[in-house]
Amino acid sequence: MAPIDSTKTPIVWILGGPGSGKGTQCDKIIAKYGFTHLSTGDLLRAEVQSGSDRAKTLTAIMERGELVPNDVVLDLLKEAMVAKADKAKGFLIDGYPREKSQGEAFESAIAPVTVIIYFEASSETLTKRLLGRALSSGRADDNEETIKLRLKTFLDNNDQVLAQYPNKLKRINAEDTVDSIFSQVEQILDPLVTK
């Protein structure tokens, strides 16, 4: 028995390179639809700040720009989803899956995904946005060298993830304005919430 019934509670994977505007669009989705937002990055950063043994291992991995092991990320996601399942109107899973095996593991451990929204932007645009963000964020992974590594890691894995779900995938041009992008998001999500 799956812990979440995605026929009643939509599960939306929000994908896009670092700097593609996922966070901004998620904020707008939450405001309009009241979905529960789970960012694997936020879950990992919260775990790192907890100071647990798991946190020390995660810190080292993240500082090297590498991907955190699948089972750790899936455990954090599943714990968070199950904790919020009774109140959730829908789930936004932000920045996950990052590789093909994670998508498979998510669907077998939690529930089938309802739709995948992919925010597409060029590497040049993403790098420019991330360098701009680095000036104000203080994030350890927002420097040019780490950014290039993150983009390469993302692109190498993302195509395989997208290829796995041709019927559930919706691509959005993330080079556009915030409002124009959101109107495309609404066309995807409105039918899910009127069911």
From TrEMBL:
Highest taxon of the lineage: Eukaryota
Matching InterPro entries: Adenylat/UMP-CMP_kin, Adenylat_kinase_CS, P-loop_NTPase
CDD domains to which the protein is assigned, alphabetical: ADK
Kinase keyword on record: yes
PANTHER family the record matches: NUCLEOTIDE KINASE
Subcellular locations according to the entry: Cytoplasm
Keywords: ATP-binding, Cytoplasm, Kinase, Nucleotide-binding, Transferase
Family: Belongs to the adenylate kinase family.
Gene3D superfamilies: P-loop containing nucleotide triphosphate hydrolases
GO cellular component: cytoplasm
GO molecular function terms noted in the UniProt entry: AMP kinase activity; ATP binding
Major localisation: cytoplasm
First-level EC class: transferase
EC number of the protein: 2.7.4.3
Record-given protein name: adenylate kinase
